[in-house]
Amino acid sequence: MIFGEMTANDTEPLVEANPNARIRTEVATGDMLYKVFPKAVADKLKAGQKVEPETHNNVTIFFSDIVRFTDISRVLSPVKVCGMLDRLYLAFDALATKHDVFKVETIGDAWMGVTNLENNQNETHAKRIAMFAIDAVEAASNVLIDEDDPDAGYVHIRVGFHSGPVVSNVIGSLNPRYGLFGDTVNTASRMESLSLSDRIQCSDVAAKILVKQAPELPLRKRGKVAVKGKGNMVTFWVGENSAARMVPKSNAQPMVNFAAGDIVSPRPMPVENHGKRSAMNALPKHGLQALGFHVSKKHESKEELEPQPEEPPKPTQPAPRPVTTSEATHKAPRQITYRSRSLSQ
Questions:
Q1: Using CA atoms, how far apart are residues 82 and 251, in angstroms rounded to an integer?
Q2: Which pLDDT tens digit goes with each residue over 147-197?
Q3: Mapped to the 3 state alphabet, what secondary structure does the chain carry?
Q4: pLDDT tens, position by position, 293-316
Q5: Tens of pLDDT, residues 89-106
Q6: How many CB atoms lie within 10 A of CB 214?
Q7: By C-alpha distance, which of 43, 309, 312 is closest to 298?
Q8: Paired sense of beta strands 200-203 and 231-238, if any
Q9: Which residues, 6+ apart, have CB-to-CB distance to 213 below 8 Å?
Q10: pTM recorded for the entire structure
């Protein structure tokens, strides 16, 4: 009788039956606001106050996206694409908590984060983003594209970041969105889109801040890069592991010396010189085959390949020498004479 009168509310489950229940509770109590908005913004929203645009003089913005995401989406079902993104973003969210990076939003395969929104990371904002970026590249490389088919390979991302001023605001009242606005956002996005697989690119402005905040972190000058709407910008590769994978150790450049003031041209990179082949090498062999590409034996390595020398063109037979008019005129009578003799015989 005692057990018959007990209900589910009287018991303490060993495992959370509904993992979304806690999230719904946080939303109902307003606690979820502090995970979606910065604290100062969440406080105003919770109090029913209007949020005014706010200027942030010095932040660092991070962008990443998945290499060949369009091809992956074409091959996988939407459910599996969602599962892949969920596994990737759960890893990113844990790293964002570790490095105290504020997650702004995700759009498809793009993840955007920022530091120093509340002006409490003035001495570490670029360093936090750089360390987060290095960990994010490594975390992505451990995320399977398809858990049901490990041969499809792992996720590869490209990363970029930039430092500068932005304006933040909450836009709309129905599903309000917290957004960052300004040229800094656009430049950070360009740093990502012009980066390469498993590599981290930052602007000259961010690199100079990073040298002060994390002098132990390796930087390698990439050189001038044509940036849409900005012209030529000097950019840098961040992190020893990602840069060393593409550049032979014998040609490694020394640590950056900003005092020299020299501008070097970009070092020829495999992806830049041989874009189609190297972009395919961004995925493992079996991952490429799963996406419908043919992979030869010499491309079996998971590492991005050094540019292969082009084969010299095969020698061609010399074209026959054209017959001149004088030669044609000279030969014609001989043929006619030969035939006339034959007829006379």
A1: 41
A2: 999 999 999 999 999 999 999 999 887 888 899 999 999 999 999 999 999
A3: CCCCCCCHHHCCCCCCCCHHHHHHHHHHHCCCHHHHCCHHHHHHHHCCCCCCCEEEEEEEEEEEEECCHHHHHHHCCHHHHHHHHHHHHHHHHHHHHHHCCEEEEEECCEEEEEECCCCCCCCCHHHHHHHHHHHHHHHHCCCECCCCCHHHCECCEEEEEEEEEEEEEEECCCCCEEEEECHHHHHHHHHHHCCCCCCEEEEHHHHHHHHHHCCCCCEEEEEEEEECCCEEEEEEEECHHHHHCCCCHHHCCCCCCHHHCCCCCCCCCHHHHCHHHHHHHCCCHHHHHHCCCCCCHHHCCCCCCCCCCCCCCCCCCCCCCCCCHHHHHHHHHHHHHHHHHHHHC
A4: 444 443 333 334 334 444 545 555
A5: 999 999 999 999 999 999
A6: 17
A7: 309
A8: antiparallel
A9: 123, 124, 125, 126, 127
A10: 0.65
Q: Which residues have CB under 8 Å from 52's CB, separation 6+?
A: 169
| pLDDT for 327 | 53
Residue identified by tokens 């020398």 is 309
Going by C-alpha positions, the residue among 226, 36, 72, 248 that lies closest to residue 157 is 72
Query: Could you tell me if 272 and 235 are in contact, meaning their C-beta atoms sit under 8 angstroms apart?
Result: no
Pull the structure tokens for residue 22: 């806690």
Q: Are 161 and 60 in contact (CB under 8 A)?
A: yes
Give the tokens for residue 170: 């909450």
